[in-house]
Amino acid sequence: MAPERTVNKNLALLLLASAQFVVILDASIVNVALPSIGSDLQIGEDSLSWVVNAYVLVFGGFLLLGGRLADLLGRRRVFVAGLLLFGVASFFGGLAQSEGQLIAARALQGLGGALLSPAALSILINTFKEGSERNRALGVWGAVAGSGGAVGTLLGGVLTETLGWEWVLFVNTPVCLAVAFFAARVLLESRDEQRPRLDIAGAVLITSGLGVLIYALVDARDAGWGSAQTLGLIGGSLLLIAAFVAVELRIRQPLVPFGIFRNRTLTGANVTAIFISMSLFSMFFFITLYMQRVLGYTALEAGLAYIPLSVSIIAAAGAASVLTTKIGFKPVLIGGLILVAGGLLWFSQVSPDGSYVSDVVFPSVLAGLGLGFSFVPVTIASVSGTDPDEAGLASGLANTSQQVGGALGLGILASIANSRTADVIGTSPPPVALTEGFQSAFLVGSGFALFGALLAAVLIATRDSKSHRDAAQAGEVPVPIAA
Predict the structure, then answer these.
(1) Residues 468, 11, 306, 108: what is their CA dihedral angle, to the nearest 10 degrees?
(2) pTM (two decimals)
């Protein structure tokens, strides 16, 4: 009998984190290049947003299906397939000569990301033993994922101004191909050993429902929150999701076994993750607009301005993994969200004639520390105590919560900012009107973070947090508590 193959865990973590970094990076790196893309390909302002939205829409819509496919077909296999699709789509996106070609490539990137991201997290869960070992790995994961948005803005500015906008897409291809090559040789394959049949009806319903919901949220800024289009799409998405629930409750092998939600901490962590994303995803959007439209920064200067934020996220994520082992994930998560709320409250004081140090650096560092201290424990909580055969499903749920929260938060806060700016633009200069809009958005975002802290305190089981802490300190695997 052949000896059981072992895996180099450090190399495995490097590969998984690199793949996740590319996915998170791509959600922000294109933002800085949008003016150049619009000018070069002659894309109007109304259509230009879909260079970003196409990626978000497909990524968020297919995450749950991608996570379950990883469980059923093999996590390494789906991970490598997602990497190859992402890399090829990025290459053709850089070659795009028209609006349609670029948007199609961005949609394919989103599909690749929806396959590889939950597969990567579920491989991590199955590779690293629950407790302090997995906490350390998730600390690295959190640092990479949390800093990806800030680094994307920096890298996007550098590439756009030096090599051209095409390279914000081309840069993904060699990374994806290299990670796919080594992943096929380093990572171990794992899947749900029961190998249930894929629930096609459930897959179609939930993917359609999530896709329509995210489309409604990202387009609500243009169509209006009270418009017939937005309300009709949201209503339609809810009907599709309700039909999905009805199908799942009646079949023997559902895409999403609802028994997973009996894990109170998993459910609470996913709800909390929605509000983390509602507050933080939009933060990068509004900071970038403030620096470029009010302070007059170039794309490169705006990118460089994110360095303190990136450093604070990485430092906090590393510390969060240690603190989670010492005191449990619940208090670290609550503390992180309070720091996020403080950073956004500080941002709500930005001024039209502000300075980089007082109006950007200090609140960025505070919010960055909060992001690191909240993202790591909420990820640990969202997969804590789950069955190994459901690791992909748990990962897909966690990623879906973040994407829905990000789309919802950006839609709401952009509407608030635009409304406030429109109210004062007639009596105030444009920089003042824009700043007042940003102030309102940051203030409401701070409220989202505080509400997330409250939800974490109420919904996440203190017993699970303490059980995880005690087991991590003892080097054991904690027993999940369902209620």
Answers:
(1) -100
(2) 0.79
